Amino acid sequence: MTVVTVEHSTAPGVLDLVRQGDEFGLSLYPPESYYALDASELDRDDVELHVARHDGHAIGIAALVDAGDDTGELKRMFVDPTARGRGAARALLDSIETAARARGIRVLRLETGPKQPEAIALYTSHGYEPIDAFGPYVGDPSSLCFAKSLS
C-alpha cells in the first residue's frame, strides 16, 4: 500500500528521487526550460514536501508551494519509474490537493511540458484544465500550464 506523508528533504530516499527527477527532466528539456525547485528550496516555510512510500521506501515526491494569495503551485512531481502504475502519482496529487485546501488555497496551478503525455493525462483526468502560462513560464514553448479550482 502506498502511504503519503509530509517529510523533510533529508528523509531517507528523498534526495535520490530529487536527483532522478532532475535527470529525467533534463533529458527532455534544455536547462533554461527546466523549472524544478532546487533541493535546498524544499524545506522553505512556503513549501510542503509530500513523499509517497511503499513498504517504507520512497517512491514518489511532490511539493506544494503556497503563493500566499489563495493560489498554490504543484512542483517537483516525480515517481520512480520502477514504481509507476501503482497509484503513487494519484495519491501524491490527492495529498497535495488536501493540503492546499487546508492552507486556504483556492486554485492550484502547475507547469509541465509537451514531452510528458503521461503527466498531462494524469492532470487532466484529475480535473486540471489548460491555462495561459504564468510566472517564469511565460514565453517558453516547452511549458504547458494547468490549473484546478479547489473550492
Automatic annotation (TrEMBL):
- A GO molecular function held by the record: acyltransferase activity, transferring groups other than amino-acyl groups
Q: Does the keyword Acyltransferase apply?
A: yes
What is this protein's name? Putative acetyltransferase
List keywords of the entry alphabetically.
Acyltransferase, Transferase
Give one Pfam family, short name only. Answer: Acetyltransf_1
Outline the extent of the N-acetyltransferase domain: 1-151
Q: Which organism is it from?
A: Diaminobutyricimonas aerilata
The record's PANTHER family line, in alphabetical order, gives: AMINOALKYLPHOSPHONATE N-ACETYLTRANSFERASE-RELATED (PTHR43877:SF2), AMINOALKYLPHOSPHONATE N-ACETYLTRANSFERASE-RELATED-RELATED (PTHR43877)
**Highest taxon of the lineage:** Bacteria
Q: Keyword Protease on this protein?
A: no
- The signal peptide, as residue positions, is none
Source taxonomy lineage?
Answer: Bacteria, Bacillati, Actinomycetota, Actinomycetes, Micrococcales
The record's listing under Gene3D superfamilies reads:
3.40.630.30
